[in-house]
From TrEMBL:
PROSITE patterns: ACETATE_KINASE_1 (PS01075), ACETATE_KINASE_2 (PS01076). The keyword Coiled coil does not apply. This is Probable acetate kinase. It comes from Amylocarpus encephaloides. The active site is at D156. The keyword ATP-binding applies. GO terms for biological process: acetate metabolic process; acetyl-CoA biosynthetic process. It catalyses: acetate + ATP = acetyl phosphate + ADP. GO terms for molecular function: acetate kinase activity; ATP binding; magnesium ion binding.
Length: 416
């Protein structure tokens, strides 16, 4: 018997819901997708696709939608009231709501959310205050308003539980580290899971025999070394702040920098709330840095297309940091690399960035074919590598929504 799964992805300024029909062990079938963007820069805009056809495109909403929970509630009502979406006529038709939760601590697998799991995730919010809180707001709404629906947390950190101890451990007092759960966790794991499976299939290899260097490049960006289908190392750490710079994130900097930046960095931000405790340091490095701080825009397409010095500087910084991780992970994998994979919104769309990065790491054996690289990416996996190159270079259109639904569908304990 098929069941309806909602894949729910709450971002800092958006909420996306994908609707799937699934039976145990089968590939989920997408029925609809709806998204509200612009929660932090009103008016919010709605997109809605049903049966792969655009129904609503960038419709400005006059209704007051101030939070992720408001956005979710609006879209849920929209899905239920759509006469063309016959799979959902009432709330009881939704068997499973799977939620993307950025930080899962030591959880190595997805979890059914009961009161114990929920309270554990609340405690983890201090490790990822800018990410877990919006997801938990929607989880709580689902627990209260959809009593017949099973809620499942799929963690961005669970893919990285295979990172070896010597890589995940910070060289600090270990009693303090263990007490406060201070170690490298890594994120974007739902995306890396999808990419690893998709690329292995494309290459005709077993996942367990696949070695990749993957770049998930978007407004939040990270890199991952994958050996034998599992995460060996990743650029993000205790929180998603470490590693590569992003649209508003600094990425890794000297830890002392923030104390020289401002004198009140240890104080709570004025934007803190009773449930969300953000220090000024976290706010500066997460929300007031990255290429927006250098250029004034979060749009990387604008950055890449401009020859203006400040734009070029931002582009060069990102290329430099990406190449540093490629070199490091090439050594981690002892040179046994099936492919360098570009993914994420920027990785999938910016042929200029792909061309520049591969040119900088050509000494390692990665080269792109300019003709293949310049074409719009339409397949799930596209080979953009130059014929005869030592290692492959690919682009993968990642799909976190699908991967969440698939994780639920392949696990009988989660689906039933």
């Amino acid at each position: 018997m098929s069941k309806i799964i909602l894949s729910i992805n709450a971002g800092s300024s958006s909420v996306k819901i994908s609707v799937y029909e699934a039976t145990t062990g089968q590939t989920p079938n997408e029925l609809a997708e709806t998204q509200i963007d612009g929660l932090t820069s009103p008016p919010p805009q709605l997109k809605y696709t049903r049966d792969s056809k655009i129904v609503i495109k960038d419709k400005e909403l006059s209704k007051a939608i101030a939070s992720q929970k408001d956005a979710f509630q609006y879209m849920l009502d929209q899905l239920i009231s759509d006469p063309e979406l016959t799979a959902i006529k009432r709330k009881d038709d939704i068997a499973i709501a799977c939620h993307r939760v950025v930080h899962g601590g030591d959880y190595g697998e997805s979890k059914v959310i009961d009161s114990e799991t929920y309270h554990h995730l609340e405690e983890l919010t201090d490790l990822a205050p800018l990410h877990n809180a919006s997801a938990l707001e929607i989880v709580k709404y689902c627990l209260d308003s959809l009593p017949g629906t099973k809620n499942i947390a799929v963690f961005d950190s669970q893919f990285h539980q295979t990172i070896p101890e010597h890589i995940r451990t910070y060289p600090i007092n270990q009693e303090v580290a263990k007490k406060n759960q201070l170690r490298k966790y890594g994120f974007h794991g739902i995306s890396y899971s999808f990419i690893t499976r998709s690329v292995a299939e494309f290459l005709g290899k077993d996942v367990g025999e696949t070695n990749l260097i993957v770049l998930h490049l978007g407004s939040g960006a990270s890199a991952c070394a994958i050996r034998g289908g599992g995460s060996m190392d990743t650029s993000m750490g205790l929180t998603p702040l470490a590693g590569l710079p992003g649209a508003t994130r600094s990425g890794s900097v000297d830890p002392s920098l923030v104390f020289h930046y401002a004198s009140d960095v240890g104080k709570l931000s004025p934007n803190s709330t009773s449930s969300l405790h953000i220090s000024r340091a976290e706010e500066i490095l997460n929300k007031e840095s990255g290429w927006k701080s250098l250029t004034g825009t979060t749009n990387f397409g604008t950055v890449a297309a401009s020859s203006e010095p400040k734009m070029k500087l931002a582009f060069d910084i990102l290329v430099d940091r990406i190449c540093s991780y490629i070199g490091s992970y090439y050594v981690t994998l002892h040179g046994k690399v099936d492919a360098l994979v570009f993914a994420g919104g920027i990785g999938e769309k910016s042929d200029m960035l792909r061309k520049r990065v591969t040119a900088e790491v050509a000494c390692l054996g990665f080269e792109v074919d300019e003709g293949k690289n310049g074409k719009k990416i339409e397949e799930v996996v596209r080979d953009i590598g130059k014929e005869g190159a030592r290692h492959g270079t690919l682009v993968c259109q990642t799909d976190e929504q699908f991967e969440m639904a698939r994780i639920c569908a392949v696990d009988e304990n989660l689906l039933n």
